[in-house]
Design brief:
Strand order of the largest sheet: 4-3-2-5-6
Order of helices and strands: EEHHEHEHEHEHEH
Distance between the termini: 24 Å
Strand content: 15-25%
Structural class: alpha/beta
Low-confidence stretches: none
Largest sheet: 5 strands, parallel
Mean pLDDT: 90
Number of strands: 7
Amino acid sequence: MTAMAKDYITFTIGPKKDIALIAHDNEKPKLIQWCKEHYAILKHHNLYGTGTTARMITDQTGLTVKGYNSGPLGGDQQIGAKIVEGVIDFVVFFSDPLTAQPHDTDVKALMRIAQVYDIPIAVNKATADFMITSEHMDTDYQHDVINFRKNIQERADTL
């Protein structure tokens, strides 16, 4: 069986996770508090975030967070691209469900990409708590992702 014959490809998320931390403005204090509560776990992982959120987490917790652009300036899309590249393993995004966001389509695109690539994404504290305390946080985790090369090849063959 050739590599293209497989419908899914198995990827391994290692014990040291690459975690994206994102929050809408009204949710930033909650995410910062969550990071403080889980500092002992988070300090062992690579952390990434969008603009202001990354800076605020670093300033207020002492955790090192690699910053990308702010969400409205493409930061959500940068995180999404890192998911596609296989860099981001885990997303914590405290979104504000009660306030309209000017970049809502970017947020939806990020959530879609996380779903397509089978990346865990928490959009509230309860889910983030379950994920960060999971038995998978400090072990390898294998997950299957659609074989997009096969999908593209099959589509090209029909054109």
